[in-house]
Automatic annotation (TrEMBL):
This is Glucosyltransferase 3. Homotetramer; a dimer of dimers. The keyword RNA-binding does not apply. It comes from the Bacteria. It comes from Limosilactobacillus oris PB013-T2-3. The gene is gtf3.
Amino acid sequence: MKVHITNLYGMAYNSVAQISQQMVARIGVENFNFNELGIYSYYDANESEEALSSRYDGILASVGANDVIIFQTPTWNTNEWEVGLFNRTFVYENVKRIIFIHDVIPLMFESNYYLLDRFIDMYNRADLLIVPSQQMLDYLREHGLTTKKILIQHMWDHVCQIDPLIQPANNKTISFIGNIEKKTQSLMDWDSSAVTLQAFSDPAEWGQGKNVRFVGWQDDSLLINFLRRSGGFGLLWGDKDDWVKYMRLNCSYKLSTYLAAGIPVIVRSDTPEVEKIRDKHLGIIADDLDTAVNRVAAMTDDEYNQMRDAIADFSPLIRDGYFTKHLLADAVYKVLYD
Ligand SMILES: O=c1ccn([C@@H]2O[C@H](COP(=O)(O)OP(=O)(O)O)[C@@H](O)[C@H]2O)c(=O)[nH]1
């Protein structure tokens, strides 16, 4: 019996969808001897049926009867393409199918909502599903999900190394490592002089005259220690309507990046892992930016260092990939035995 895992290629080098799939696949290959099924992301709408059929056969060439396939989804090709690949695996006898849901496209973009039933129909044909959160599971159940075997991801890993000589300090800085212009309009109205907003993008007009520091995109090899050196907090935010709703269901990659770097986080009270963040003292919980900024401005070094030390205790799990190792091992075990 072989275990296969799909892996995404062809996207921009800074695509977080690709970065996260490649990290999961690498953990599976290096720790459990999984076999990789490479998937190229491309514009598939005009591909002939014949070409598509050969492509599917090529992707699945190493699969045999009784194997396990872990599909990392979405593949970011069209839904028809993805379902087509999934369907093709039914020609192999007794193959077990695990779908690892990284994102649910119909819930990310309102214009794709009409596709939700088709996605759920595919999820229902999996032997086991890995879902990002209990909240996502509840949502999918309310919308027709019936798959019995379920695992909850809870948190991303961010495999990396830190420089332990750099200690994050209570600098009055809030870092945001996402796309401000696309997802967080309110950050563009930054008006705090006490706390600096650190944006990981190129200088933009909206930041002029404000207490905003633009540091540009940092390659993964630099990002973690850059965040450690900056200290302060890592912000998880969004204020576009569909994004706010989606953030209540998904597992945020940037949340794990901040924790991997060892800096406390700022999250809303409806963030899926908020209880762990509260119980383990990993950051600040605030539902509006003013409250968050005031808490950061008023924070004492002692209070900050307690959070930093609590994160240092827990974050090796994220940096060494234990959430994913645990999940992948459990998924294979559960699909074959439990
Ligand atoms: O300068 C940067 C800024 C971001 N990122 C990566 O981009 C991720 C955030 O992407 P996104 O906002 O799509 O993640 P989400 O939190 O929405 O899952 C971070 O965790 C980093 O891995 C990076 O490598 N360099």
